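SAMPLE LOG
Freezer: B-3
Tube label: C17
Construct: single chain, 161 aa
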Amino acid sequence: MSTEQADVKLAPELEKYIQHWKKQPGNLIMVLHRVQGHYGYVPRAVAFQVADLLKIPLAQVYGVLTFYHFFKLKRPGKFKIAVCMGTACYLKGGDDLIQELEEILGVGLNVVTPDGLFSVEAVRCLGCCGLAPVLAVNGTMHGNLKKEDVADLVAHYRAQA
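STRUCTURE (predicted):
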């Protein structure tokens, strides 16, 4: 476990939330969503604490974390780029957007850039088929993109850092 993750403690408001929902059936997914909303991912040390507070096996926590694609076990980049690979986006160049991002950022999918600014993931659908191809940066949609637009988009977010 990295030193960074070993030092992560469950935030008091999350502990209070878990205590409140502890006895509710089906609480694990709800708790993990709240944890990820707070940290941006589910730190390993926090997963241990969640298991302890809910009095469930750690394997059950990790079973949920690894089954659902939504949950992240590593800290994402400051700018989380989600490239739509739904049918419309794929057919109109979604894969080209991913290749261009990999070239510009120097990392592949599901990897954080060394400066911690960017992470890229391919997602099933962003629900903006009429704007295909689409990518989202921290939830902000960018549509009707061409491969040539990617460098300017990355530069725009890099300037915000």
